[in-house]
Amino acid sequence: MKVREVQERIEREGLDAFLFSSQANVFYLSRFRSTHAYVVLTPTSRYLITDSRYYERAKSELKGWEVVLIKGRTVRFIKNFLKEIGARRVGYESDRVSCDLRRALRSTRIKWVGYSSFLRDIRVVKTGEEIERMKEGVSRSDRIFRELLEFVQPGMTELEVRRFIVDRIFREGASGESFPAIVASGEGSAIPHWETSGKRIKHGEPLLIDMGLIWDGYCTDFTRTLFLGRPDPEFLKVYTVVRDAHLFALEKVKAGNRIGDVDRTAREYISGKRLGRFFTHSTGHGIGVEIHEYPRVYHRGEDADRVIEEGMVFTVEPGVYLPGKFGVRLENIVVVKNGRGEPLSSIGLDLITL
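RE: above sequence
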């Protein structure tokens, strides 16, 4: 992992140590997951600080780390620990701590330096190991989707379909959903983040499936829009526009291009088909140990100017949503490999009818 790269940045910033408190960054750095653990890095040392519930497991799992047992009140213990190792100027995640923790960290003997998104530019480019984990997760997600196509029948409820997805996620050996799966039928598919319900799936309606799992600590994210029965011309038109917008956007996923180019390409194509006002979200987002990571794939804002690099991983997911009628979204995770965007999923984008 990139611990050494993080330590080098800590040294460049003139810090004696950095305290990581967010679960995502603690896991990213240590590969140890818990609900109560902290990572302290110095330019030369790495410590995982946790309580008695996780201490023995951490000691057995972590190689090359010093595992420290919290004794007494957590924040007081951490501050005393930092003093013991001679840390006087300490960085912390100002964007990921609560107001209570921020107040509790105050100390006259430690100079706290807040950083927003300290690991952002390190996490955005995945290592080969990270990409392999995500590939395996997507492979298992693809298998679940193919099984789902054999399972879905008119008359089932959306919740029954989600239950099938969750069951298969655990059967595949994943640790859970990366987000609550969206199963949206009929008019519900026109709401981008529809809450899966007891609504029954009907013949002659679209069915949008947005699902993901966590494999070895990394998230997947995948969306397809199906049709139960014979689709009408309006649905076919919208589906074709979204599919083509996805493919045009994918062509812009090239090292050296900017993130904003990807979104702009999809958005301009959809707008050219007079459907632009029905595309209501960004074209994608970074993904890794969290379901939504930097960068946001959008034509506006700071992220838009981010240059695409080899090893970046993000989603491409244009959508069109006609209120009261239906919606279409098609999503793949894309990795930048050999300078070009490569979808991790092997499921095609052509319309599937059941």
